Amino acid sequence: MPQRDHSETDVLPPCGRPTVRRGRPRAEAAVAAERVVAAGGRRATVGVVLGTGMGGLVERLADAWTMPGVETGWLARSTATGHAGRIASGTVDGVPVVMLQGRVHGYEGFPPEMLTRGVELLAALGVRRLLVTNASGGLRPTMTSGELVILSDHIDLVRKPWGDALEPCPAAAGDIHAACYDPALGERAFVAARRAGVIARRGVYAFLSGPSYETRAEYRMLRRIEADVVGMSTVPEIVAAGRLGLEVVACSVVTNVARPDAPEHTDAEDVCRLAADAADGVWAILRELVQDAGPPAAPAAND
Ligand code: HPA
Q1: In whole numbers, what is the pLDDT of the chain averaged over residues?
Q2: What is the pLDDT of residue 155?
Q3: What's the pTM?
């Protein structure tokens, strides 16, 4: 598969967005990447952001290495349940992979520029292909807890300038918001999950700021605007990854199904437990994505 280059302006393949202004990770991300490598972490082509409850996937890496994210001098400490805040690397089927075990969220008080730091660090470590995972509320009545939704697009109901901290300059007014979910890779992820015996479908993610789960009226509204799942993360990372030119697959684990007329209690502990139970499907997707990922991107000239 041809690798995308990392030029600043590019015409991107068929995912509904003609042109985006390309960006690079900030210089501090490159310094943090050097720190990771000096401490024993690997450069890798494939990166993973492990969302709520999915941190256990680090234990499936061969030759696993981890370090606290804050020791990179670049990543912030997460305060959310189920987000360990470590960076990990190792191999999957012999292919180097780097993982962020947890993320930070806007509802923890972090500004937009901090929500994209993890993805910038992954790109600075050579990542070209990114798997972003999260826990979400399912909005279709036919959904069941534990199923996977491979995102085909998102509805950003928070709408902040997510990719603007990247070098060299902010997106201009009128730029296409760089949500790019690689359709061919998404299809492969979907097939891989189903092959692993996991219930999976394609769908649209609605991004709300949280931190509380939605009201019944909000769940009804989200169904009307044709969202399939709802959550409080991921979109800032996807937008930044799009501007960094990464191939992106995003996978949501449905941890509760919104039935506005028969509401059930959901708490963060349930969400973590159900997300952890979905690890086999996410792992099957990752094994599919490492297959033809190619070598890591070379460090940028300003690194
Ligand atoms: N809403 C928002 N975020 C979530 C939910 C939800 O119902 N479940 C897991 N993350």
Answers
A1: 86
A2: 95
A3: 0.89
- With contact defined as beta carbons under 8 Å apart, do 279 and 54 qualify? yes
Distance CA 196, CA 212 (A): 33
Any domain includes 101: yes
Q: Is residue 201 part of a domain?
A: yes
- CA–CA distance, 274 with 263 (Å, rounded to integer): 18
CA dist., res. 102 & res. 53, Å (int): 8
Residue 138 alpha carbon, nearest atom of ligand 1 = 7
CA of 212 from ligand 1 middle (Å) equals: 8
Query: Does residue 9 form part of some domain?
Result: no
Using left for φ > 0, alpha for ψ between -120 and 50, and beta otherwise, residue 261 falls in: alpha
Instruction: Tell me the pLDDT tens digit for each residue of 107-145.
Output: 999 999 999 999 999 999 999 999 999 999 999 999 999
Residue of minimum CA distance from atom 10 in ligand 1: 136
What residues make up the domain containing 143? Answer: 19-289
Nearest to 148 by CA among 191, 105, 212, 184: 191
Site to probe by mutation for ligand 1, drawn from 54, 154, 214 as the one with most ligand atoms within 8 Å of Cβ, is 214
The structure tokens 């993890």 sit at: 118
> Which pair of structure tokens corresponds to residue 62?
């061969």
How many distinct structural domains can be found in the chain?
1
Structure tokens at 10: 């590019």
Q: What's the CA gap between 237 and 103, in Å, rounded? A: 10
Whether the pLDDT of residue 61 is over 70: the answer is: yes
- 297 is a domain residue: no
CB atoms within 10 A of CB 34: 14
Q: What is the pLDDT of residue 82?
A: 66
Please report, for the domain that includes residue 200, its CATH number.
Answer: 3.40.50.1580
Choice from 230, 264, 265 to test ligand 1 binding pocket (greatest atom count within 8 A of CB): 230
pLDDT of residue 48: 98
